[in-house]
Structure formats: structure tokens, C-alpha cells
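Issue 218. Parser rejects a valid record. Input:
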Amino acid sequence: PGVLAPNGAVPMTDDLNAKPSTAFFVIAGTFMTWNLIGLMLYYQHMSAPPEAFASLGPEKAAFIANTPVWANAAYALAVTLAVIASVLLLLRKSWAKPAYVLSLVAILVQDLESFVLRDAVAVFGNMALAAPSLVLIVAVIEIWYSSSVANRYYR
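Output the parser choked on:
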């Protein structure tokens, strides 16, 4: 296992595309759960009436109401691609990593709008960085994990 044949080819062994371990399914299932929660939060955010944000105060409600369509589209792409990537990972398909990467790009576009083009920290305080930071960290972990299992489990 893992030793090249004299001609440099990878030998045909049972280790290549082996059955994933229980840990693989636990980790991939955790990613799926995380991303489904993100999709649910997106749906709740987009379907909430403007009055739902009024309790946050006028400045915060205005910030949310004035989010450009393209930033909301980036949010939608980020969570949808992450769910698709998680399905692909569970199915052991090689497209999982590119889908996670595209999801990360959409996250970065959304964060660019919130933190660079508009100053979310000035409106919401430093806590505005907590959730987006966690989302970025998990997205990078998803990409790393989908890469690390690629040669072992993908079909």
C-alpha cells in the first residue's frame, strides 16, 4: 500500500478508494449539518419582514435593509454551494473540493461587502466579526478536509 510499482505506477490495491471510516462520515455529516443550518439561517433572514429587524434599533435595521442584492446573492451562493459540496463529500465525489472553494469565494464576496464596502463593525460592534470569522474558519477546514480525503475515498 502506497508503494509505487517499478514502472512508477500506483499499484492496484484495496487501499485506493477504500471504504471510508466512520470518522469520515461523522466529519462529513457534521459539515452537512453546519451547512444546512447556514441555509436555514439564510432562508429565515431573507423571508423575515423588515419589522423583524426593528428591535435591533434603527441603525442596525437600516444596515440590514440596505444590503445590496449582489451581497444577498453571494450569501445564497455560499450556503447553497456548501450544502452541495457536503452532499458531494458524503457521496465521495471529487467535485466536493471545488464546490467548497466556490462557497468560500462567495463568503469572501459577502464579507467584502459587509466589512470593507460598508463598516459592519461600526454598526454592530466587534461581535460582528465573530460569526463571519467562524464561517471562514469552517470553510477553510472543509476545503482542507475534502482535499485530504480525496485520494483515499473519492470515486
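Fixed in the parser; the record now loads. Confidence is low (pLDDT under 50) at residues 9-14.
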